[in-house]
């Protein structure tokens, strides 16, 4: 997997066919140029997705906005000023590339003021050097180091909202020692939101039942979703899945995240200050390591889910595993299963919970209903071990 460099490129000619060879040459160096024709368009995109970009590449002349008729010679100065204003959010390496001779062949006051070199679009050696320097400067940026060190995760996060990538970058910066002061309320909420987003994606693949993501119209029931994907009956939604999607460790990690962050309810807007377990924990251990451990578990969950959803993308097949649960008037679950054995003493047995639990059928019921191996029955369970209220199907 190659390391990718995402470059914000402001050049009024970025779509010109004459620049296609330059774009291709950059792509061969794993440099992806995202072009904008004006100062306003480019910096609006930058501020909307600031952690996506690694380097800024500026033409010497470009439009002020999408309505400008001619390139503005002051645009370069405005762009540099804006880059400096954004330093409190993120510091960007930036470069100037132009084919204008009054920038490439003579001294320019703007370039001179900021001690900048203008690379020449028309000089192949300049272009090669520019691309090399872009990568060298980008590699020194903490954000890009994080993305490259955790490339598989961040490739997967391209499918998620930008805010999720930003959350993980902030957490990785903490792990690197840049910021160890985390607000539990903020980051525990973010972790729950990421898990909720994954559950919504699971629903689009048919892996997770609609009822789990339509609580109150649009909310995700995190606890019920975990049960469903883990192969267990939901507690309140009266649905289950005949296939267990979550491996045991993934299921345990998801459950741990849900309950540690206090989100066993159907909402992600949980006030962690009301979680007595977290507050008791914080009284004796006030470190960010609990957050880090949950975040690292979540990273593995997202990576697992990406591979699993790709291998199980048949929506109709996935939905065929959904089951509606039946209950009697007393709230007892009604099971349906086949008789697997009739013993010599007249008692029979059926298997429930995906064949992991044996339930006895009283010999009197076997005789009265003329039950034989292979017959299907509906029943409830008394004392977790004996079938009651049996109906032969």
Report on this structure.
This protein has 393 residues and is an alpha/beta fold. It has 3 domains: 5-140, 3-Layer(aba) Sandwich (Rossmann fold), CATH 3.40.50; 145-322, no CATH class; 326-392, Nucleic acid-binding proteins (OB fold (Dihydrolipoamide Acetyltransferase, E2P), Beta Barrel). The chain is built from 16 helices and 13 strands. The protein has helices at 20-28, 39-48, 75-85, 101-104, 109-113, 124-138, 142-149, 151-157, 162-175, 184-204, 222-229, 248-260, 276-284, 289-311, 315-319, 363-368, and strands at 5-10, 31-36, 55-58, 94-98, 118-120, 239-241, 322-324, 326-327, 333-342, 348-352, 357-361, 376-382, 386-392. α10 (184-204) runs parallel beside α14 and α12 (248-260) packs across α14 (289-311). The longest helix is centred in the last third of the chain and has 23 residues, at 289-311. It is elongated. The model is unreliable at 263-268 (pLDDT under 50).
Which properties best describe this structure?
5-stranded parallel β-sheet; alpha/beta; OB fold (Dihydrolipoamide Acetyltransferase, E2P); 393 residues; 17% strand; Rossmann fold; elongated
| Helix run count | 16
Radius of gyration: 30 Å
Mean pLDDT, all residues: 87
Characterize the biggest β-sheet: 6 strands, antiparallel
Q: How many angstroms separate the termini? A: 56 Å
Spans of at least 5 consecutive residues whose pLDDT stays below 50 are: 263-268
Main structural class: alpha/beta
Q: Number of DSSP strands? A: 13
Write the layout of secondary structure elements.
Elements: E1 5-10, H1 20-28, E2 31-36, H2 39-48, E3 55-58, H3 75-85, E4 94-98, H4 101-104, H5 109-113, E5 118-120, H6 124-138, H7 142-149, H8 151-157, H9 162-175, H10 184-204, H11 222-229, E6 239-241, H12 248-260, H13 276-284, H14 289-311, H15 315-319, E7 322-324, E8 326-327, E9 333-342, E10 348-352, E11 357-361, H16 363-368, E12 376-382, E13 386-392
Helix pairs in contact: 10-14, 11-12, 12-14
